[in-house]
Design a protein that fits this description.
5 helices, 4-stranded antiparallel sheet, mainly beta, flat
């Protein structure tokens, strides 16, 4: 028992340490998920990790780690499922766990299957070997493991994957130490030629979901609810699925309200107004709590998030429901006045609050008048609605829709790339009274351009649209969107700026 407790303590320390290392390497609070490349170099095979900011453009960091167990110069990445990378080397498949990136040399990466044994791979998780499907993964020490699932037959397709238990579950290896698996607490909805299933990875248990025809089965995920809700249905059966992948058949609720023409012909929509289903027969089924209610309404436009009922416009499911069945004595008209809107055919909500956009003008819903009034957009709203983060049109540069000053450019601008300069690393701030936490950091965003003669830097262009000129840098032979080049430009610019102070 004492030994077990020591193992658990060491395990917790390990997890905290790994989290600390990863946090220290990426010191910007909000970054995009790292992505990885294999580098074939003279002295070996390397896995390169690249981290970018949430804008998916600005580099935060880039580094590489040598793969001591993979030496084949013909090695290549087969797939990347977000947690692990599947690599083919020397006619063998290997998993490279991303969480081991910083400590790869401390673990032995073991092979999964020989290439000639595998006839099909699905989503980096399931392997068809000698006519049988296997689920394959790895433990947190890098050791591979695989489970044979004889019940699965024929073509296999993963419908959805979810984490249904965020507790750290452990197993013992043959040395008596706890070994965490990368997928403990995960469940997968999948289908083969015969049925639709829920696969519980930690229990290696395959459970058939009844009454679903695999070829007709659809899966839909709501994007704006917490906790997440999912819908799984074929033509005559409709399930609600909660965050733990427990499913509830609500087909009878539809039937009692007069729906008989099948679900697969309908269109599901999810947005800030709520979830709805268009049955193409004049009815819109709006989701209220865990049920769907039919209303004889239409959508305002192709965004499918504003409803028209009796010539009034509604922006929330509950308001439309109240209008369709005003039984409460305290009922109040929940419609909105869009008479000020310039372009109603493009009007849509852009947040969970009261912000709207018609692709020309921003609006805010006034509580008293229930009318949409014109407003100036915040930088956040601009980011939500800007399609092209960086655009160059007629020698003009636009970042997040904002035009920058290009008067100094002698020719058409060429975008070299962007990089983040971290001033204060990311720190977690605890709010004692609200029992909440936020993350804060300070960084400068550099965007580098050239006109073929000089190099220009825009620093935080949302605040300052004027460029700085790097007079001591020749644009010749500069690589575009290359981390090392951008890091070099950043260091040269900072050195020059310090000398001029």
């Amino acid at each position: 028992m004492k030994h077990l407790i020591q193992q658990i303590i060491l395990l917790i320390f390990y997890l905290v340490f790994i989290d600390f290392v990863q946090a220290s390497q990426t010191s910007v609070c909000h970054t995009d998920s790292p992505y990885y490349d294999l580098l074939i170099e003279k002295d070996g095979i390397y896995l390169q990790e690249t981290v970018k900011a949430k804008n998916k453009i600005s580099y935060v960091s880039q580094s590489k780690a040598r793969l001591k167990d993979i030496t084949d110069k013909g090695a290549r990445i087969i797939s990347d499922d977000g947690d692990r990378i599947l690599v083919l080397s020397n006619a063998k498949y290997f998993f490279i766990p991303k969480h081991l990136y910083r400590t790869l040399n401390q673990y032995k990466i073991t092979s999964l299957f020989n290439e000639n044994e595998v006839s099909k791979i699905v989503s980096n998780k399931f392997f068809l070997v000698s006519g049988y499907w296997y689920y394959a993964s790895y433990a947190l020490d890098g050791e591979s493991y695989k489970h044979k699932i004889p019940e699965l037959k024929g073509n296999l397709e993963i419908i959805a994957v979810a984490v249904v238990n965020n507790k750290y579950l452990g197993r013992f290896n043959h040395f008596g130490s706890i070994v965490l698996k990368d997928d403990e607490g995960y469940q997968i909805i999948l289908k083969d030629d015969n049925a639709v299933y829920v696969y519980d990875i930690s229990k290696n248990k395959l459970e058939k979901i009844p009454h679903l025809t695999p070829s007709q089965t659809h899966f839909f995920q709501t994007h704006h609810s917490h906790p997440k809700i999912y819908y799984l249905y074929d033509d005559d059966t409709f399930y609600l699925i909660d965050k733990d992948y427990k499913y509830t058949d609500i087909t009878e609720e539809f039937n009692l309200q007069g729906k008989y023409n099948g679900f697969t012909k309908a269109e599901m929509h999810t947005n800030w107004s709520g979830d709805s289903m268009d049955t193409k027969d004049g009815l819109i089924w709006i989701k209220i709590f865990n049920s769907f209610k039919p209303v004889k309404a239409t959508y305002l436009n192709a965004y499918k998030d504003l409803y028209v009922y009796h010539n009034k416009v509604y922006s929330r499911n509950w308001a439309l429901q109240d209008e369709a069945a005003p039984s409460d004595p305290s009922y109040r008209d929940g419609s909105i006045d869009i008479s000020n809107v310039q372009n109603p055919s493009e009007l849509h909500r852009i947040s969970s609050g009261s912000e709207f956009f018609d692709n020309q003008q921003y609006y805010s819903l006034e509580k008293n008048s229930r009318r949409l009034e014109k407003k100036e957009p915040s930088a956040y709203l601009k980011l939500l609605t800007t399609k092209d983060h960086i655009a160059i049109r007629e020698n003009r540069i636009f970042i997040d829709g904002q035009q920058l000053n290009t008067d100094q450019f002698q020719d058409a601008p060429i975008f070299l790339g962007s990089i983040v300069d971290i001033i204060n690393p990311c720190v977690r701030i605890m709010h004692e009274y609200y029992h909440d936490e936020t993350y804060d950091s300070k960084e400068d965003y550099y965007y580098f351009f050239t006109d073929g003669k000089k190099v220009y830097a825009y620093i935080n262009p949302g605040e300052n649209p004027n460029p700085k000129v790097l007079d001591n840098v020749s644009p010749q032979n500069l690589k575009v969107n290359d981390y090392d080049t951008l890091k070099k430009l950043l260091n040269m610019f900072k050195t020059t700026a310090k000398e001029n102070d």
